[in-house]
Design goal:
The chain is mostly helical and 302 residues long. The chain has one domain: Orthogonal Bundle (Farnesyl Diphosphate Synthase). Helices cover 68% and strands 1% of the residues. The chain is built from 14 helices and 2 strands; from the N terminus they run H-H-H-H-H-E-E-H-H-H-H-H-H-H-H-H. Strands 1-2 form a two-stranded antiparallel sheet. Strand 1 and strand 2 form a beta hairpin. Helix 3 crosses helix 7, helix 4 packs antiparallel against helix 14 and helix 8 packs antiparallel against helix 10. The radius of gyration is 19 Å and the shape is globular. The protein starts with a helix and ends in a 6-residue tail after the last helix.
Length: 302
C-alpha cells in the first residue's frame, strides 16, 4: 500500500485497542503482586508499568496467537513478561548516564520521580520478575516454557537488546558504517519485537516453516519501528512533517535519518513494512490484524 494511502487511514483502525486494554488489566494484576517488597520499590514498579504506552510488543504476541486460531489469552503471561523487560529497558535508557531523559510518556521518568538508585533497582527487579511471570503463570509444558525463556533471554541480553544498546552508546559521536547501524537497530529494538512474535508462535506450537515466516515478518517490522521512531524524534525536534525533505544531519547521532536523510529513511521503512506484509500473507493464517499493525507503523505520530 502506498504511503499516501496509508497516511489517509485513521490509525485507530489499524491498532487493536481492545488488546491494549487486555494487556493493561493484566499488567496491573502482576504489578500488585509484590506486597512483600519495600513500598518504594512496589510504587516505582507500578508507576513505570502503568504509565501508558501502546503495548506494541505484548500486543504483537497476542495477535500472533490470534492469527493461529488460538485464544490470545493463553499467551498473556508471556506477553506481559516481555512488557516488563521493555519497561526495564526504558527506565535504564532514561538515566542521566545514558539518554538523560526527564520525561517518559508525558510523566517524570523513573529516576526523576524516585531517584537514580531506586530507578536502577526498579529496572533490575522488572527484568528478573519477567522470567518469574513466565515460570509461575504461563500455562504450557516445560519444554515450551524453556523455549520461551530462551527466546526472551537471547533477545534481551548480551547478544540482543543490551548488545544493541551498548553499541548505540559506545558509537555515539562516532561515525559508523551501514552494517554497524543495522546491528544497532536489529538488536536494540528489533530483537525484543521479534521475540514477542516468536514466543506467541512457539506457545501455539507453530511448525518450523510458520515460525520462520513469523520471524521474517517481525524482523522487518522491528527494523521499520526503529526507523520511524528516529524520524519522529527528528520531526518533533525540528517541527517538520514526516514527508518533508530535509538536509538534517543528526549531530553525529547514529540513526537512519542521519545516514540516509529523512526521505530515503522513510522509503526504507515502507519497504520493510511491505516485505513484512508480503511474508505474513504467504502463510495460511488469519493475518488481518498482523497486516494492520504493520501498516500502523507508517501512520504513527508518537
Amino acid at each position: 500500500m502506498p504511503a499516501k494511502e496509508v497516511n489517509n487511514i485513521n490509525s485507530s483502525e489499524l491498532y487493536p485497542s481492545f488488546l491494549v486494554k487486555e494487556v493493561n488489566n493484566n499488567i496491573k494484576y502482576y504489578a500488585n503482586k509484590y506486597r512483600e517488597s519495600p513500598p518504594v520499590l512496589r510504587e516505582a514498579m507500578k508507576y513505570t508499568l502503568t504509565c501508558g504506552g501502546k503495548r506494541f510488543r505484548p500486543v504483537l504476541c497476542l495477535l500472533t496467537a490470534r492469527s493461529l486460531g488460538k485464544d490470545y489469552r493463553m499467551v498473556i503471561p508471556t506477553a506481559c513478561a516481555i512488557e516488563f523487560i521493555h519497561t526495564y529497558s526504558l527506565i535504564h535508557d532514561d538515566l542521566p548516564s545514558i539518554d538523560n531523559d526527564d520525561f517518559r510518556r508525558g510523566k517524570p521518568s523513573c529516576h526523576r520521580k524516585f531517584g537514580e538508585d531506586i530507578a536502577i533497582l526498579t529496572g533490575d527487579a522488572l527484568l528478573t520478575e519477567a522470567f518469574n511471570i513466565v515460570l509461575k503463570y504461563q500455562v504450557a509444558d516445560d519444554r515450551l516454557k524453556i523455549k520461551v525463556l530462551s527466546e526472551i533471554s537471547d533477545a534481551s541480553g548480551a547478544s540482543g537488546m543490551v548488545a544493541g544498546q551498548v553499541a548505540d552508546v559506545y558509537y555515539t559521536g562516532k561515525r559508523i558504517d551501514k552494517n554497524k547501524l543495522e546491528y544497532i537497530h536489529r538488536n536494540k529494538t528489533g530483537r525484543l519485537i521479534t521475540a514477542s512474535v516468536r514466543c506467541g508462535a512457539i506457545l501455539c506450537k507453530a511448525d518450523e516453516n510458520y515460525l520462520n515466516k513469523f520471524t521474517e515478518y517481525s524482523e522487518n517490522i522491528g527494523f521499520a519501528f526503529q526507523i520511524i521512531d528516529d524520524i519522529l524524534d527528528i520531526a518533533s525536534d525540528k517541527k517538520i512533517t514526516l514527508g518533508e525533505k530535509d538536509n538534517y544531519s543528526g549531530k553525529k547521532r547514529n540513526t537512519f535519518p542521519d545516514m540516509w536523510g529523512l526521505e530515503k529513511s522513510r522509503k526504507i521503512a515502507e519497504e520493510k513494512i511491505n516485505n513484512a506484509i508480503t511474508v505474513i500473507k504467504s502463510i495460511d493464517i488469519d493475518y488481518e490484524w498482523l497486516v494492520k499493525i504493520a501498516k500502523f507503523l507508517l501512520t504513527r505520530k508518537a
